[in-house]
Each structure stands twice: as structure tokens, then as C-alpha cells.
Amino acid sequence: MPDREYNFDGLVGPTHNYAGLSPGNVASLSHAGQPANPRAAALQGLEKMRFVASLGVGQALLPPHERPSLRTLRRLGFRGSDEEIIVQAARDHELGDHLLRISSSAAAMWTANAATSVPASDAADGKLHLIPANLTAMFHRSLEEETTTLVLRAIFADRDRFEVHDALPGASHFADEGAANHTRLFVPGKPAVHLFAWGRRAFGGGAEPVRFPARQTREASHALARLGQVAAAQALFPQQHPAGIDAGAFHTDVVAVGNGNVLLLHERAFMDVEGLLNALRTLLGPKLVSYLATEAELPIKAAVAAYPFNSQLLTLPDRTMTIVAPAESREDPHAHAFLKRVADSGGPVRSVHYLDLRQSMRNGGGPACLRQRIVLSGEDRSAIKARVFWDGDLGEELAGWVRRHYRDRLVASDLADPQLARDGFAALDELTRILRLGSVYDFQR
Ligand code: SUG
Fold this sequence. Notes:
Blueprint: E1 4-10, H1 26-30, H2 38-54, E2 58-62, H3 70-75, H4 82-90, H5 98-104, E3 115-118, E4 128-132, H6 139-142, H7 144-155, E5 162-164, E6 182-185, E7 193-196, H8 218-227, E8 235-236, H9 242-246, E9 256-259, E10 262-266, H10 273-284, E11 289-293, H11 300-306, E12 312-315, E13 321-326, H12 328-331, H13 333-343, E14 349-355, H14 358-361, E15 371-376, H15 378-383, H16 392-405, H17 418-434
Parallel strand pairs: 1-2, 4-5, 7-8, 10-11, 13-14
Antiparallel strand pairs: 1-15, 3-4, 6-7, 9-10, 12-13
Helix pairs in contact: 2-16, 16-17
The chain binds N~2~-(3-carboxypropanoyl)-L-arginine (SUG).
N~2~-(3-carboxypropanoyl)-L-arginine is lined by residues 18-22, 25, 28, 105, 107, 110, 112-113, 138, 141, 180, 251, 253-254, 363-365, 369.
């Protein structure tokens, strides 16, 4: 059986809320404090999985993480029973409820940031490489690494086929945001090309954004290429445009998306767009098809607000491509016109589908953020024993599980309710049985 790409979507967790935790992420800041609807968020995510699977595309999922992270709060010095810890962290005399909000974030739903994956066909040792991201740029996201690593090791357990690495060593020098800054392009008959983008140099120097943080370092990107055993000639390391980051493009996938021989990008995606496109043409030849949006065609502000690039660019069973975009891109005239230009150009992309992912979008997470792309052979897939691959029965079971366990309204003050944690843990305990994952959460171990 030929290799197939699977989109491992993050199932939205029961504490999905708008805590305003991500400086540089315009949507996260502008929706801070608004009521969230975790049930609707999770169902919107499941609907996307169902839809993508219905296109004949590989679909799978990764579970939410346990939140609040009581382990984190204990490590920060809160003591007592689970309930006591939550109550104390909700009214810390210095930080108010900030630490509780941080340790309650459901941000693991954006599995593009969970890891970087290099297909076995591109790695020197012929194994699939998964490098969990340390996400050190944002404290609330740095809590994800441990559970992500456990979950990936539980799913990709066959050590002869899969290598799930340790995340890059912490601290800010090797700050890694996972596949959100990674793009793999290929044309038949040539080795695939990997773009490992980055926003700043670990040891300083060079251009940097001035308003918002650059999350990923160049040094981290080089380490990912080494760990994934990508041939040096097949790896490119473009710098994210500082002006793009300052406009709210905190990850590359906010302003660029690639698949197969097609690359969509904004002129503020990378510092040296022309140099990058030339290098890609040299490596991939004339079959490379790129769509560059200029500031005049699609202002970066609109790209950041409507997320047309944060789409899934999918190869269909008939080898044509389609775009799965957020509904916001249909409503924004510039974003809509750009996607229409791509689909009407006579190239590989033939259609655009718009989905309602508003609950996630309000935290800056579009269709592309919600999924980790992993290429598997038929044998790889058979080697995975967890029930993480999409089918209609699993979809129905999960929708029922969400309806039984999730609240339809969550505001910051609800995070202080110990019952939210108890209900969430009970739900996740049940989920690991549905997904046949074994014990991956602290409260199970
Ligand atoms: O890391 N938002 C996420 C969004 C991640 C989007 N992922 C990709 N582009 N691949 C982030 O900024 C907001 C949480 C809050 O404010 O409650 C948040 O973490």
C-alpha cells in the first residue's frame, strides 16, 4: 500500500476558554475574557474531522491533555488536595487567577504545534520521526510537551518503525513550535523538500520583530532537520518575516501553506520570498506551483484576521487538491478573492470548502492549526493499535462523549470550580478507554 498522509486532529478539551494568554496572537488577545463554549468547540472539531474523512483523506486524532495541570501547580508550590490547589491558584495574592488560567488552557487542541513529523521516506534511517515541540515561547503551551510525548509514544509504539524523540532541550535557545513552522513539498520522482522556518536567532543578531515575540529559533529548526535525518540538500531554513510576525503571524502557517507541489504564501511570510521560491524551483523543478499574495491583493491584516492560509491543502483520491478554509475567509473579501484565484487558476487546486471553526478561531487556531500531518504506509498504520483513526462509529461515539461531558459555557471564574476538573478527568479517563490508549494522564498513573 502506498504512503498516505493522515491528519491527526486535536480533540478540543473540556476546559476550552478564552484566557488571552498569547501575546502576538491577535485573536487570543482580542477575545480574552469572552465566554467560550467547549461543547461547540469540540463538536466543530469533530465535524471538521468527519468532513475531511468524507473527502477520502486520511483522518485520525489526538486526545486533549488533562487540565488544570495539577502537576504544574504543585511544582509551583501549591499544596493540599486537588480541590485545595485549585482554590488557592484561583486567588493567589500576587497573580490572581493567572496561574490557574495558564494551567487550565486547552491549547493542546492545536496539534500542528504538538510535534514536527518527518516521513520515513525522507529520513536517512527509513523511520518516521516525530519530534515533540517544547513550545517554550508561551508558558501555557510549554506544559504540553510531557503529555504529547507520552501520547505519541503510546500511539507510535512500534520502535522499529517510529522514532518519537525527546523534545528539544528547554529554555529559549531551542524554542520549537512544531509543524506550524514546517512545510514539506514534493513532486513525483524527486526527493521531498522541507522548509523549517524560524523567527529569531538563539544567540541574537539579524532582523527580529519589534512588537510581538518571535517564537521559534533558527537553531531549533536546524536541530529538527538533524533529528528527522533530512538530507542537508533537501532542507531549507527561511526566516519568518519580522513584519509578518509583528502583524500577528506568530506561526508560519498563519501566512503560508504547502502540499505536494503547491505553495500558497503571503509576501510577508518570509524575509526573502524570491530567494526561497528560486531555491524551491531549483530543487523541485518547473512542476512547483506557487501563489504569492501581495499586500495589495491581500493585506496582511486580512490574512491574520481571516486565516485563508491557515487552511488544509489536501490531496484528494483523484490527485487533485482542495482547500479546507475557515468560514472567516469566505466573509473577508480579500481572503475570499485570493482563495478563489487559486481554485480558478487551472492548477492542481480545484475547490475551496469553508467550515465553521469559530470557537477555535477566536483563540487564533484555524483548520491548519488543529491538525498534525503524519505520513504512514499501510504497514505503519497496521502497527498502530490505538483506536485513533477516524471512522463513522468512532465519530458518533466521540460526539456522544462530548455531549455527555462538556459544558456549553465557560468563563474564567468557572476554572476555579473543582467540579470542572473532576468532570474533565472522568471524561478523559473514559476517552482513553474509547481510544484504547492505556494510561497517559497523571491521574491514571
Ligand atoms: O499558541 N492560542 C494558540 C494558537 C495556536 C495556533 N496554532 C498554529 N498556528 N499552528 C497559540 O497562540 C490562545 C489561548 C488563550 O488565549 O486562551 C492560544 O494558546
